[in-house]
């Protein structure tokens, strides 16, 4: 869910980082992309603050009932492995308008706590059993999810100039016009050298260390249980092929991919280096899994096979329901769509 959660530079997490100040940017004044990106999404008039919410612009896995079923199954397995502790909680960080939690509220055991964390106020129609907060809990026993959260954590955008120097990209907030700024800082260069090497003039990248730090903070809040990130992602192998020579920063508006324009009228996302996030936290966890949504959901029993047509004559209602589940499964596991999302799950104290 691409929704807000405050604190780390105003992002959707409420993770406990000190909020950095973001000066309002004037028209026709190029500023670093990271600053413009943050203001466009999280300022009082930003994209995620608007009444229509992200659901008015795009459909995610959270809007598909079968996804909530799979997450409930995952949480149930986790709960059992923990010995069904008191206070088992499912926390959705960057919960949007609570769509995923609403699905879980219908099927989760009554002794589970369901909590949404987001920068927006509690949605008026939200189920009474769902708790709502602007800050991520300091200690979680259970499952902490960051579903389509990390891709909207703003980060530096850089480009190789004609002399081979990596420089920060500046953008005009209203027109979207760009120019190159100062040379990238040491932290940016070190991250790029390890995770996204660039040499050719014109190559661009999004520097992922703000996502790594946020993920480390979220994982650290899990005392016993699992932290799960589900997001647009790329791998070191992908980044080395030139597929991402222009970076991955794009806009989303009314169901369409549009040029990235940081004026608050569209969502702004960039793929996540989940392998870098994993490396940031691997020493602090007991076990890690990094895979695709397609493979993860298959392991959780999501099956896209169509029911036998002969069964329609025996129980038409059951046949129609099976067709619906198969349709949802195909959407969730489409290798050219949601099925290509990355899943990073890390366990602590399990």
Structure description:
By secondary structure, this protein is of the alpha/beta class. The chain has 9 helices and 15 strands. Strand 11 (250-253) and strand 12 form a beta hairpin. 45% of the residues are buried. It has helices at residues 33-42, 65-81, 99-105, 186-195, 209-220, 236-239, 274-281, 293-299, 316-333; strands spanning 31-32, 89-93, 113-117, 130-133, 140-147, 157-160, 166-171, 178-183, 204-206, 222-231, 250-253, 256-258, 267-269, 287-292, 342-348. Helix 2 packs across helix 3 (99-105) and helix 5 packs across helix 7. The chain is globular. The strands form 3 sheets. Strands 4-3-2-5-10-15-14 form a 7-stranded mixed beta sheet, with helices on both faces. Strands 1, 6, 7, 8 and 9 form a 5-stranded antiparallel beta sheet that branches. A 3-stranded antiparallel beta sheet has the order 12-11-13. Residues 1-26 have low confidence and may be disordered.
Secondary structure layout plus pairing:
Elements: E1 31-32, H1 33-42, H2 65-81, E2 89-93, H3 99-105, E3 113-117, E4 130-133, E5 140-147, E6 157-160, E7 166-171, E8 178-183, H4 186-195, E9 204-206, H5 209-220, E10 222-231, H6 236-239, E11 250-253, E12 256-258, E13 267-269, H7 274-281, E14 287-292, H8 293-299, H9 316-333, E15 342-348
Parallel strand pairs: 2-3, 2-5, 3-4, 5-10
Antiparallel strand pairs: 1-7, 6-7, 6-9, 7-8, 10-15, 11-12, 11-13, 14-15
């Amino acid at each position: 869910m691409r929704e807000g959660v405050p604190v780390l530079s105003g992002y959707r997490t409420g993770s406990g980082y000190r909020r950095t100040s973001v000066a309002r940017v004037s028209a026709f004044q190029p500023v670093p992309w990271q600053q413009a990106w943050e203001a466009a999404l999280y300022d009082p008039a930003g994209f995620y603050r608007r009444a229509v919410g992200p659901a008015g612009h795009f459909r995610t896995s959270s809007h598909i009932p079968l996804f909530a079923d799979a997450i409930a199954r995952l949480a149930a397995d986790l709960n059992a492995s923990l010995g069904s502790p008191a206070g088992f909680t499912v926390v959705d960080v960057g919960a949007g308008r609570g769509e995923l939690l609403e699905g879980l509220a219908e099927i989760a055991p009554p002794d589970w706590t369901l909590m949404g964390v987001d920068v927006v106020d509690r949605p008026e129609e939200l189920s009474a059993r769902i708790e709502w907060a602007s800050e991520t809990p300091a200690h979680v026993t259970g499952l902490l999810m960051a579903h389509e959260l990390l891709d909207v954590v703003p980060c530096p955008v850089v480009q190789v100039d004609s002399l081979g120097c990596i420089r920060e990209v500046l953008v005009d907030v209203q027109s979207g016009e760009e120019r190159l700024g100062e040379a990238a800082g040491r932290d940016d260069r070190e991250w790029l050298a390890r995770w996204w090497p660039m040499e050719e003039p014109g190559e661009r990248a999004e520097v992922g260390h703000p996502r790594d730090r946020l993920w480390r903070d979220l994982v650290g809040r899990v005392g016993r249980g699992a932290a799960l990130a589900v997001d647009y992602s790329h791998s070191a192998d992908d980044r080395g092929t030139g597929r991402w020579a222009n970076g991955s920063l794009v806009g989303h508006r009314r169901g369409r991919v549009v040029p990235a324009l940081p004026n608050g009228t569209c969502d702004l996302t960039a793929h996540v280096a989940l392998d870098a996030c994993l490396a940031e936290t691997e020493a602090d966890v007991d076990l890690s899994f990094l895979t695709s949504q397609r493979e993860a959901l298959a392991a959780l029993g999501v099956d896209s096979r169509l029911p036998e047509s002969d069964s329609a004559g025996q129980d038409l209602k059951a046949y129609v329901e099976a067709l619906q589940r198969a349709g949802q499964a195909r959407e969730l596991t489409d290798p050219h769509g949601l099925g290509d999302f990355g899943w990073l799950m890390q366990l602590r104290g399990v």
